[in-house]
Amino acid sequence: MSERIAVRKTYKLFIGGKFPRSESGRSYPVQNSNVALASRKDVRDAVLAARAAVKGWSGATAYNRGQILYRVAEMLEGRRDQFVGLGVPAAEVDEAIDRWVWYAGWADKLTQVYGNANPVAGPYFNLSAPEPTGVVGVLAPTEPALLGLVSVVAPAIVSGNTVVVLVAEASPLPAITLSEVLATSDLPGGVVNLLTGRPAETAPWLAGHMDVNALDLTGVDDPELAAELERAAAGNLKRVLRPAAGPVDWTADPGVGRMTALLETKTVWHPKGV
Amino acid sequence: MTATTASARSDLSEVGRSEATLRTFLHGLPGVDQVGAEQRAAMLGTRSIKTSAKAWAIDLAIRMVDLTTLEGADTPGKVRALAAKALRPDPADPSCPSVAAVCVYPTMVPVAAAVLWGGTPGPAGPSEDGTGSDGFRAGSGSDNGSVPRLGLLGEPSDGRGPRDGTDRAGGRLALPGPAPASRVHLASVATAFPSGQAPLEVRLADTRAAVAAGADEIDMVINRGAFLSGRYQEVYDEIFAVKAACGNAHLKVILETGELATYDSVRRASWLAMLAGADFIKTSTGKVPVAATLPVTLVMLEAVRDFRDATGRQVGVKPAGGIRTTKDAIKYLVLVNETAGPDWLHPDWFRFGASSLLNDLLMQRTKLSTGVYSGPDYFTLD
């Protein structure tokens, strides 16, 4: 008998809950695998999918979003060895799983902590409540491949945003494997869209897209590119998260900054006593 | 591929004389090769139209849109907003052409007419080269409406065009209501739209009322019950009567292809409508699940092409319903060019019955002019 030949995997994009090849048909080699090289039209399709998902995801109850994020952690736990096989340190996988759990817990607490009943000089209830911004474009950091990605995606979606993530060129395999986890975690299609390829090529299209509401530039290493993207983002006044000035310790307590940066506050006046 | 060669080319005027001659003629039309038609439509849908050709196609498609609202919930305010949008689809860009027509229910015709042709200085239509920026030229240019409208690039070629029988611009000038300042036409559905199931007198009265209210195009539905049970003479006579009731208004005949079941029926209905005097044949009401498809439009385009070869009269085609994206619209334009020919690539001869299509066209247009992807937030809801 001849020796069995292993089946090799094609690493594709993750758009709208599906795994399409790049519209351009391009790919590039990473660790002996072919990985899809996204084009501007994939960005466009991903933004469409993300926009379509906003209503359902932001309209889901906070409790339900928390459950789904926790489910992601459960699924990730089951695939631990797969990530280790891709070269992700075991400690980093554990950290990533714990991070999903940590953010899952925040889902139904954000409104309590960041909403408020404001004292006003009149017969009104004056209530401020945080709401998601909408579609968020994210440039994921190169390192750590898994923990860095989870640390930028989870805080964006926990509040009801949907994301289009441009995965760093050098480390796409854990990202696509994570998308397989997301696809089996009851996360509605389109809430997270992952595009592999060259962010320097596709990011300007994402930054200029008029139907994107916020831009997270965490993964941009080149200050000139970051400035250019921020300028493009000004076209429709996107919220922009600038990249950190120095090195980031991704294993440290993430804090709430990434979540609150992608929230908008809605204040309503409601008459009382009438 | 499958050409509808009429057997008795010379004398089609006698075909409508009796049930027997109609049946002989319609059933003598060659059958449609279903697989071939679908294959060809699919093949033409794969053409890649980019950059300047795409820009041209988008502007042409905008000029071909019959901006439609046919809902029970239509209000005068909604129709006014729609008519204003028809005149200036993209208020931020004066180079954006107007659409071809507004399509409403008869009761909403006066409301739309007031906006399209009302006392205020109406916007002149798009300049002929499609790049003009004089959208809000006050008053009515004396040239408007007095010459037949020609295409962006000079088509339709008049060499082949036996357009004399139609002389559309002249016919329009003779209309009582509309001033020629606006080139946006006003279409009204009539004849008990969308079912067509009402006594003939009611349908004719419906038509006359719409014309009297100011509509210069009438979209009628055929009596599918009669057509499907083979009473061709009845359908023929009804279309003929409605055409007479239309006066100078142009008649679009809705075949409701989704209910005709086969391409053979679509071909027969197309010929029947054209023989009875239709100025346009239209696929659908938009009220049944199956609306316009590429193969059905292909069959209809073949019919109008062969009808012109046989009789010298050019008839327009209007797919309606289900066309929502620029990509779809461009597929239809390719189909028109490859099937009927460039003579039909003009708003006088090809229309899109649509509402949401316009916003997608505008988004694509904005993408081409600004270089960044646009979003639905920046365009009005219909």
Order of helices and strands of chain B: HHHEHEHHEHEHHEHEHEHEH
Instruction: Enumerate the strands of the largest sheet of chain B in spatial order, edge to edge or round the barrel.
Output: 7-6-5-4-3-2-1-8
Rounded radius of gyration of chain A (Å): 19 Å
Q: Give the N-to-C terminal Cα separation of chain B.
A: 39 Å
Radius of gyration of chain B from the CA trace? Answer: 20 Å
Q: For the residues shown, what is the average pLDDT of chain A?
A: 95
Tell me the strand order in the biggest sheet of chain A.
7-6-5-8-9
- The total strand number of chain A stands at 10
Termini separation of chain A:
87 Å
| CATH topology tier name of chain A | Aldehyde Dehydrogenase, Chain A, domain 1
Number of helices of chain A: 10
Largest sheet of chain A: 5 strands, parallel
CATH class of chain B: Alpha Beta
Strand content of chain B: 5-15%
CATH homolog superfamily of chain B? Aldolase class I
Task: Please mark out the parts of chain A with pLDDT under 50 across 5 or more consecutive residues, or reply none.
Answer: none
The number of domains of chain A is 1
Structure overview:
- The complex is a heterodimer of chains A (274) and B (382).
- Chain A is of the alpha/beta class.
- Chain A has one domain: Aldehyde Dehydrogenase, Chain A, domain 1 (3-Layer(aba) Sandwich), CATH 3.40.605.10.
- Chain A contains ten helices and ten strands.
- In chain A, the strands form three sheets. Chain A has a five-stranded parallel beta sheet with strand order 7-6-5-8-9, sandwiched between helices. A three-stranded antiparallel beta sheet of chain A has the order 3-4-10.
- In chain A, helix 6 (145-157) links the parallel strand 5 and strand 6.
- In chain A, helix 2 packs antiparallel against helix 4.
- The model of chain A has no long low-confidence stretch (mean pLDDT 95).
- With 382 residues, chain B is an alpha/beta fold.
- In chain B, strands 7-6-5-4-3-2-1-8 form an eight-stranded parallel beta sheet.
- Chain B is globular, with a radius of gyration of 20 Å.
- The termini of chain B are far apart.
- Mean pLDDT of chain B is 83; it is low at 119-181.
- The chains are: A alpha/beta (274), B alpha/beta (382).
- At the A-B interface, helix 1 of A face loops of B.
